[in-house]
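Sorry to interrupt, but I need a hand with the structure work. Please put the record directly below this note.
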Amino acid sequence: MLLDEVKLFSGTESKYLAEKIAEAYNDKLGDLKMNKFSDGEMSPVIHESVRGSYVFFIQSTFTPADNLWELLLMIDAAKRASAKYITAVIPYFGYARQDRKDKPRVSIAAKLKANILQAAGADRVMTLDFHADQLQGFFDIPVDHLKSVFIFMPYLKNKKLSNAVFASPDVGGVKRARVYANYFQRPLVICDKYRKKANEIESMTVIGDVKGMDVYLVDDLVDTAGTLCRAAAML
């Protein structure tokens, strides 16, 4: 792959990170303008050739939904401009929590999003810390699932962990917390929570002993921080 074949572009909500990535790559971001009509409709225009290029679009897809739609439009623009290979770099993969049908008459939004990205023309997806590893199976294109554990573990090595215990704030995060517990050969504690509805915890129980221990809570994303705060209080 030749360096001049690589093109890096950013969406409006990930500009700072995209600039840092381009700087690390010793390059600059491509010339892309996101035009908007008065009613909010978006129209991306790529002001340089991407024909035959390896194109990377860097854009997180947290709310509002415009962030996802912006990414899809950029991918479509590059596809129609004869880009050779398009990678969607999505640091925060929104809608990842809706990865299963856990009650009747609900959407599996993560699967729908995977379908839409592929339909738009993405050849590859690069993301960080899926809410659940099985989301990779929702795609029929390659997925680079990067893990933040490779950043945090070296940091934690500098801490005194002889009295540490690693805790998961919910049952769904046990696998994530166990990676840390096994690596540092420390105990694992689980906070079992019960919800009646989203963002509202009905009850929580601690499974394991934390008395006199230094507790490291391991989680993948923070919305209202209700789970983390409740787990910390219980611990």
Notes: DSSP finds six helices and eleven strands in the chain. The first helix runs from residue 15 to 24. The chain has two domains: 3-146, 149-234. Helices lie at 15-24, 66-80, 109-120, 149-157, 174-184, 226-234.
